[in-house]
Amino acid sequence: MGNHRHHSRTTLRVNGKPHTLTVDYRRVLLDLLREDLELTGAKKGCDHGQCGACTVLVEGRRVSSCLLFAVALDGCEVTTVEGLSGDGVEPHPLQRAFLERDAFQCGYCTPGRICSAAGAFAEAAAGHPSHVTDPAAPSGEPVPLGCAEIRERLSGNLCRCGAYPRIAEAVEDVIPCRSSPTCAPAASRRRPPRTPRTPAPATSAAAPTSSTS
After folding, report:
1. What are the C-alpha distances in Å from 38 to residues 18, 33, 139?
2. pLDDT 10s digit of each residue in the chain, 213 long?
3. N or C end of the chain, less CB within 10 A?
4. Contact present, 54 and 43 (Cβ < 8 Å)
5. First to last CA, the chain
6. From CA 73, how far away is CA 41, in angstroms rounded?
7. Beta carbons within 8 Å of 197's beta carbon, 6+ residues apart
8. Are the beta carbons of 83 and 44 closer than 8 angstroms?
9. Contact yes or no for 97/174 (Cβ under 8 A)
């Protein structure tokens, strides 16, 4: 009984390029991307589909790549953070916004979060509601993305560094928050550029005085 009985030839189109590999039935997409194709943007965090660090796009929809068997995706289009910007010459708007907002600390969760945000934009544009979408909103119509929508749709991506405020600001910079009257567009909340500190003028201590009687 050869090991070939537990493998299949599988073709995936990853970031616009076809890859045909002989894949073990038990191999998940995350391991194939990282170990076979050396695309290490997607990270292995919890390995249970709960942290979001492994998020990639399959056929344009965000998925937890640590839970999907690669052989089940034969013929599918997969997009990782490395391929979001297309030719890779210019960063994707989300990547640029994360840099401008300093929306990360260790950066471990950032690739998955950026892919998740890109997928969330597509879902909202296709009219898929979230938990906070107004029930009276027309079915199938694009869902306006506001503060609450962005936070809800990205709630499945965890950041142990706690960079959530900057992350939300970065996403809002790409899709301005317009649905809530209490939430101004992120551009209007942009912090002014930092000015270098100037050292305080040196002061000399007064010489102690003594009195003699």
Report:
1. 14, 6, 41
2. 456 688 999 999 999 999 999 999 999 999 999 999 999 999 999 999 999 999 999 999 999 999 999 999 999 999 999 999 987 789 999 999 999 999 999 999 999 999 999 999 999 999 999 999 999 999 989 999 988 999 999 999 999 999 999 999 999 999 844 443 333 334 444 444 334 445 555 554 444 454 444
3. C
4. yes
5. 110
6. 19
7. none
8. no
9. yes
Q: Which helix (H) or strand (E) holds 78?
A: strand 77-79
Q: If DSSP codes are grouped into helix, strand and coil, which group holds residue 196?
A: coil
3-state SS class at 91: coil
Q: Which residues contact 113 (CB under 8 A, 6 or more apart)?
A: 52, 55, 154, 157, 159, 167
pTM of the model: 0.79
Q: CA distances (Å), 2 to each of 5, 6, 7, in order?
A: 6, 8, 10
- CA distance linking residue 178 with residue 151, whole number of Å: 14
Name residue 28's beta-bridge partners: 69
Q: What tokens were used for 114?
A: 């950026």
171: nearest Cα among 93, 112, 105, 107:
93
Q: How far apart are CA 135 and CA 146, in angstroms?
A: 15
| Residue among 71, 85, 33, 72 nearest 55 (CA) | 33
- Cα angle: 160, vertex 78, 59; to 5 degrees: 105
Tokens representing 122 are 């597509």
Helix (H) / strand (E) element for 183: namely none
